[in-house]
Automatic annotation (TrEMBL):
Binds 1 Mg(2+) ion per subunit. Binds 1 [4Fe-4S] cluster per subunit. GO terms for biological process: 'de novo' IMP biosynthetic process; purine nucleobase biosynthetic process. It comes from Geobacter pickeringii. This is Amidophosphoribosyltransferase. Its cofactor is Mg(2+); [4Fe-4S] cluster. PROSITE patterns: GATASE_TYPE_2. The lineage of its organism: Bacteria, Pseudomonadati, Thermodesulfobacteriota, Desulfuromonadia, Geobacterales. The gene is purF. The keyword Cytoplasm does not apply. It catalyses: 5-phospho-beta-D-ribosylamine + L-glutamate + diphosphate = 5-phospho-alpha-D-ribose 1-diphosphate + L-glutamine + H2O.
Length: 466
């Protein structure tokens, strides 16, 4: 049985002006593997021609043969790891997308989701465009190809002016690399330096792996052009209020990354501290649901004074596929990933810390696992508010009718997951823990307040638990 977790759509990474560009891009994608485990690809440039290698699978599998890098020559490269949000899970949708058109060759890697892609695609098809993939990203290439602007930067700016939604983009031509971030800044993107070369990555943890220097975050609405003459910055798009995704802090980003001006690990610990202030309970131990629940559990333990323990051990060596028994092992999906430490849990009043509850099925199985290991009480604490609305900005979440908190009270959810008590971090506590100041965040998955409206919102909740 599949365990549902929200999945991030993509991670992007690019290197310009380094003799080992493709190898470094491989390492960067390896560091960003948590942002997409469905497919990956790299496109490189030797100054005259673009070269591509991409496939379904994990980075280490797709680029496991060193001979592949001999087919990716040059001093510049961009790469991509993907979950599908728009488009099917097939080889033709693996990025970066590379095309030849009247002005040369260009490749693009995209992290995000264009909410008006279908509308623009319909217009382009009416004028004769033929699409090769089912991804929203391809719309941008058609807009570039049909633009009458002279410079590539202006063509990109014109194309981005036609689309709405979340995007962090990397373009690669024979001679330049261009990065762009949407005006709301939904997804993180940063700029680094390695020797004489430049690096762009979805998260700073990818810079750390290749020992690149973190320079700065690319700003919302910014287009960064990197050529042999250096780096230039442009802001051609209409300014709007920034709305970075707060769920990057809750779950998606790696805890060692620096995004939106803050360290993810420290923010998650503060989530746990605030959660302890809002939802105290008499208990003997605090345990996380690994791995994403660990920093918040540490913060909860420190604030509450209740000892922290690793009561659930995660198996980190699960392959992409496994044969699941039909009836012989109950809750097999959870058990293959998590195993309780009975000597820690037996006879204890346990606080279980997790980052979110989506459908509730996984939480239900975890609570029963902890209870079956001998826990006397199980109190669940969630380091984010209830996830009641789907994301339309590049995160693979269920429809609203499948989100448990969209149609059930907290007490109904508590009864469904069979916990003795259940407490969520409040939206006010979440923002206080982040320390927003004057910087707002996108909280649409909690509040339903979408910064950019999606053309077709999901149907009303219909999930029936009982």
């Amino acid at each position: 049985m599949k365990l549902y977790r929200p999945t991030e759509e993509c991670g992007i990474f690019g290197v310009y002006g380094h003799p080992e560009a493709a190898n470094l891009t491989y390492l960067g994608l390896y560091a960003l593997q948590h942002r997409g485990q469905e497919s990956c690809g790299i496109v490189s440039s030797d100054g005259r021609t673009l070269f591509s290698h991409k496939s379904m699978g994990l980075v280490a599998d797709v680029f496991g043969d060193q001979e592949i890098f001999k087919k990716l020559p040059g001093r510049s490269a961009i790469g991509h790891v993907r979950y599908s949000t728009t488009g099917d899970s097939v080889i033709k949708n693996v990025q970066p997308i590379m095309v030849d058109y009247s002005r040369g060759s260009i490749a693009v890697a995209h992290n995000g989701n264009l909410v008006n892609a279908q509308t623009v695609k319909d217009e382009l098809e009416a004028w004769g465009s033929i699409f090769q993939t089912t991804m929203d990203t391809e719309v941008l290439l058609h807009l570039l190809a049909t633009s009458k602007q002279n410079s590539l930067e202006d063509r990109i700016a014109e194309a981005l002016g036609r689309v709405k939604g979340a995007y962090c983009l990397l373009f690669l031509t024979e001679t330049r690399m261009i990065a762009a971030r949407d005006p709301q800044g939904f997804r993180p993107l940063c700029l680094g330096k390695l020797g004489e070369g430049w690096v762009v990555a979805s998260e700073s943890c990818a810079l750390d792996l290749i020992e690149a220097e973190f320079i700065r975050e690319i700003e919302p609405g910014e287009i960064v052009v990197i050529t042999k003459d250096g780096v230039s910055s442009h802001f051609p798009l209409a300014k709007t209020e920034a709305a970075p995704c707060i769920f990057e802090f809750v779950y998606f980003a790696r805890p060692d990354s620096y995004i939106f001006g803050k360290n993810v690990y420290m923010v998650r610990k503060e989530f746990g501290r605030q959660l302890a202030r809002e939802h105290q309970v008499d208990a003997d131990i605090v345990i996380p649901v690994p791995d994403s629940g660990v920093p918040a559990a540490l913060g909860y333990a420190q604030e509450s004074g209740i000892p922290f323990e690793l009561g659930l051990i995660r198996n980190h060596y699960i392959g992409r596929t496994f044969i699941e028994p039909q009836q012989s092992i109950r809750h097999f999906g959870v058990k293959i990933k998590l195993n309780p430490v009975r000597d820690i849990l037996k006879g204890k009043r346990v606080v279980v810390i997790d980052d979110s509850i989506v459908r509730g099925t996984t939480s239900r199985k975890i609570v029963k696992m902890v209870r079956n290991a001998g826990a006397k009480e199980v109190h669940v604490r969630i380091s984010s508010p209830p996830t009641s609305y789907p994301c339309y900005y590049g995160i693979d979440t269920p429809t609203r009718k499948e989100l448990i908190s969209s149609s059930h009270t907290i007490d109904e959810i508590r009864r469904y997951i069979t916990a003795d008590s259940l407490g969520y971090l409040s939206e006010e506590g979440l923002l206080e823990a982040v320390g927003t100041g004057t910087n707002p965040y996108c909280k649409a998955c909690f509040s339903g307040g979408y910064p950019i409206r999606f053309p077709k919102l999901a149907a009303e909740p219909q999930l029936d638990l009982f």
